[in-house]
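Methods: holo model generation. Sequences were used as deposited, without trimming of termini or removal of tags, and paired with ligand SMILES retrieved from the corresponding compound records. Each pair was processed once, and we did not select among multiple samples. The sequence and S-adenosylmethionine SMILES for this entry were:
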Amino acid sequence: MTSLREAWEARARAWIAWVRKPGHDSYDRYHRDQFLPLLPPPGRRTLDVGCGEGRLTRHLASLGHRIAGVDASPTLIDAARELAPDMELHVASASKMPFDDASFDQVVSFMCLHDVDDLDGAVTEIARVLEPGGAACIAVVHPLNSAQERARSDEPRTSSSAFRALEGRGRSTRSTSPSW
Ligand SMILES: C[S@@+](CC[C@H](N)C(=O)[O-])C[C@H]1O[C@@H](n2cnc3c(N)ncnc32)[C@H](O)[C@@H]1O
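and the model returned the structure below.
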């Protein structure tokens, strides 16, 4: 069976074409602008987990974040490097990241955690690399978008499953739904 990680690598070029077509994706139309106000101001160091071809990563850098990005897809990381050659970018799984404990005071993960094979491992890693009191800001698709998956699975990939995993590791969480 194909893993989600392999599926993303196989579809990476189509994804790059999709997200780089101006105005085509909901990111430019509203998702980014709903997400950014949730973040604390730039601090010590910010990590973008599942950064893809780097659209949010570049935006956060332009806002003053000292940023690193990680994604499991080599093709997507190559594409991110083409537009931001000096950015710190890593090919790695969210469930095994190449950073020391407490390396970041902010972690963002935008529309990624519903797509990882090992959600529990990814959340454990986010908690590990985040300093105590740091902020993890996570956006996942609305449950309406994952209705098919919910029908198939006992453990749907909603924000609540990510939050339960974070809370299980002693992190406090807060949920918000965008209004549009
Ligand atoms: C919907 S895309 C979002 C990408 C980016 N955050 C954005 O908004 O453009 C989901 C991303 O999750 C990444 N991904 C899937 N499994 C992963 C894993 N185990 N570790 C890290 N990234 C993963 C995919 O390669 C893909 O870039």
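The beta strands are 46-49, 67-71, 88-91, 104-110, 130-139.
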